Amino acid sequence: xxxxxxxxxxxxxxxxxxxxxxxxxxxxxxxxxxxxxxxxxxxxxxxxxxxxxxxxxxxxxxxxxxxxxxxxxxxxxxxxxxxxxxxxxxxxxxxxxxxxxxxxxxxxxxxxxxxxxxxxxxxxxxxxxxxxxxxxxxxxxxxxxxxxxxxxxxxxxxxxxxxxxxxxxxxxxxxxxxxxxxxxxxxxxxxxxxxxxxxxxxxxxxxxxxxxxxxxxxxxxxxxxxxxxxxxxxxxxxxxxxxxxxxxxxxxxxxxxxxxxxxxxxxxxxxxxxxxxxxxxxxxxxxxxxxxxxxxxxxxxxxxxxxxxxxxxxxxxxxxxxxxxxxxxxxxxxxxxxxxxxxxxxxxxxxxxxxxxxxxxxxxxxxxxxxxxxxxxxxxxxxxx
Length: 385
Fold this sequence. Notes:
Number of domains: 2
Radius of gyration: 27 Å
Distance between the termini: 41 Å
Helix content: 55-70%
Order of helices and strands: HEEHHEHHHEEEEHHHHHHHHE
């Protein structure tokens, strides 16, 4: 069996499996999926992203009619109705990342996640439009009499087994500001679903609109409950709570051991001084120093209160230390897993796009499979010409 033929068979099998997964996910969804899309309104004849409208409805004007960046017609788009969107064919992605800079100092978590998503999430555009009505959005109560789901048009969608898919026609009608807001919206959706960091749609839309329209006020942070909620807020606040708890436990241990300081030898006294100081100590280092105090026999069962207080504190700090180390290891692994998953899902599509660019190539099956898959989605009513 020749090398090229083997590549063809393996590539076609992997790609067919990926397409089947995507199509099955859509079929199971009944048209809404687990993901969420960017939605636009038409106000005064001009398209505007829902996120931006809710941020400041009084400032809506003709600026939204000014066309922004244009997603070009390419060979893959003409051939298989799909093109990969990246920094080379969309300079707007560079601008989206650049606009994060003023926010980074006081909002390292949210901006870091958004930048990672902008650079790593599978991002595609199609010359089809969406027939489905996305229901995964938030409309505040004061707007419920002004706009409804029927007023919204879905222009992008996040499918968990596929990535971000954008309608070329609808995107090209947006102003640059609205296009940037869409990128932020979809990157946050990627964080919400792919990273499994739960946050409300209200939070997602507010962050996307805020970063798009302005820089931060003095000391303003997106890493707070003013912007973030749900599990993501818990993850942001967890290190701060642990730090405060560690300070409290360290102070209690110091107070418990100090009455016996005169009975300690010099080395153990120095250890206690370090515990009682303001010198930063990592949690596992603090546990080790408390162990030195306990093992010195200076504090023993005859001093029940001090002994059991330090045992209790040491036990809690030890659990905290284990949790911190698991978290430190887990996050990079989770990111690596997401990156690998995204790469796997994108590989077959990239092969099809590459083949379409080259005309007729050796992987003829991938182009045919992608074209047929998208056509089936049109027949099923998810997409339309």
